[in-house]
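The methods section describes the discrete structure representation at length, but only in general terms. Since the whole study asks how a given chain folds, the encoding of that fold should be made plain. An entry of this sort, consisting of the sequence and the corresponding backbone structure tokens, reads as follows:

. . .
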Amino acid sequence: MTQAVFTITINGIKTATINTLTDAVKQIDWTLKGELEGQTFELPQSTTTPDAVQDGFISLTSLTAENLTAWIETHEDRMQAIKAHIQFVLDKQVSTAALSTAPLPWMPVVEPVLEPAAEPTAASL
């Protein structure tokens, strides 16, 4: 089957002071969304980050969604499993969307019975 297209959206962060580094990111809340042939499925996630170190530290005011997304893509150990789960769900959605409901050939076709509209009475006029 076709491979889904995945997108990470950052929903929020939690910070802490680590040694002398203030507002160091300790948790990233994010959602991974998969899209395939008009179907979508997303899973919210949280990732706890290791303690920040001075080397390479980016201050909170300089952080971007791209910084956090790149970190998640590189360091999230569960990423392949999360993508595999989303791909599985999307594959099922795509295959189900391609199906049509058919009547059971051995069952009689029941036509809906429409009730005639009530004639207006003098009291209702």
Remarks:
- The two ends are 64 Å apart (CA to CA).
